[in-house]
Amino acid sequence: MMHDNKIVLLVSGKRKCGKDYICEKLKLLIGEEKCCIIRISGPLKALYAQNHGLDLKELMSDGPYKEIYRQDMITWSDKIRTENPAYFCKAACDNAPKKLVWIVSDIRRKSDINWFKDTYRDLVKTVRISASEDVRIQRGWVYKQGVDDIESECGLDDYTEWDYQVSNNSEEDSKIAIDSIMNIIKELIQ
Ligand SMILES: Nc1ncnc2c1ncn2[C@@H]1O[C@H](COP(=O)(O)OP(=O)(O)OP(=O)(O)O)[C@@H](O)[C@H]1O
């Protein structure tokens, strides 16, 4: 199968490690004409909102709505995933614009990585972002049973085959992380 992409960058990390922060900076550096951020949670939330009569805009935002429904959304989407593990990954890619670089900013499960690797083969590069618990707490993370202790948060804790592992405990860290990822990307999209 031919793809328009040259890179599919899969990004993973615990809550408040700075996934969005790093992905947004990468997108700006690569340029919006070449790059977009994809979220597997996009089609997931759309379908959930539709099925439950909720406001999608509220659900997509970082507000309280997201936290109120997070748990139920996980249970609901797990049911769909049991029948078809790739359902939400495929839907996210089907809806994504054609760009040289796709950054998938919410990779959570081994089944996500497997589907992307089966589909996009050697275009796939994987990145794990980490930050200490102290730093994540400073950024607003509060441990939640039923969220932080289940597969959607821990499914990749023991995954070891990352192409890049970067830490994001500080602004300095993020610069180093972004530089090293950009070095690879620049070469691949030339
Ligand atoms: N290197 C950094 N320097 C300064 N602020 C940062 C850094 N990384 C992240 N932040 C800030 O920390 C907060 C959490 O980051 P972000 O939303 O990117 O995390 P996330 O991993 O996407 O979280 P979630 O899993 O909840 O979506 C944001 O306010 C972000 O601006």
Describe it for me?
With 190 residues, the protein is α/β, with parallel strands linked by helices. The chain has one domain (7-41, 88-189): Rossmann fold, CATH 3.40.50. Helices cover 51% and strands 14% of the residues. It has nine helices and five strands. It has helices at residues 19-30, 41-52, 56-60, 64-83, 87-94, 110-120, 133-138, 151-154, 171-189, and strands at residues 7-13, 35-38, 101-104, 124-130, 164-167. It has a five-stranded parallel β-sheet with strand order 2-3-1-4-5. Helix 1 packs across helix 9 (171-189). The protein is globular. The model has no long low-confidence stretch (mean pLDDT 93). Bound molecules: adenosine-5'-triphosphate (ATP). The site of adenosine-5'-triphosphate (ATP) has 13 residues, from helix 1 and helix 9. One of its GO terms (biological process) is cholesterol biosynthetic process.
Largest sheet: 5 strands, parallel
**CATH topological fold name:** Rossmann fold
Count of all domains: 1
Instruction: Kindly report the average pLDDT value.
Output: 93
Please, how many helices?
9
Give the termini separation.
22 Å
Instruction: Please state the overall shape, judged from the principal axes of the Cα atoms.
Output: globular
Helix content: 40-55%
Radius of gyration: 16 Å
Number of strands: 5
At the fourth level of CATH, the homologous superfamily is: P-loop containing nucleotide triphosphate hydrolases
Task: List segments where confidence is low: pLDDT < 50 over at least 5 consecutive residues.
Answer: none
**SSE string, helix = H, strand = E?**
EHEHHHHEHEHHEH
The first-level CATH class name: Alpha Beta
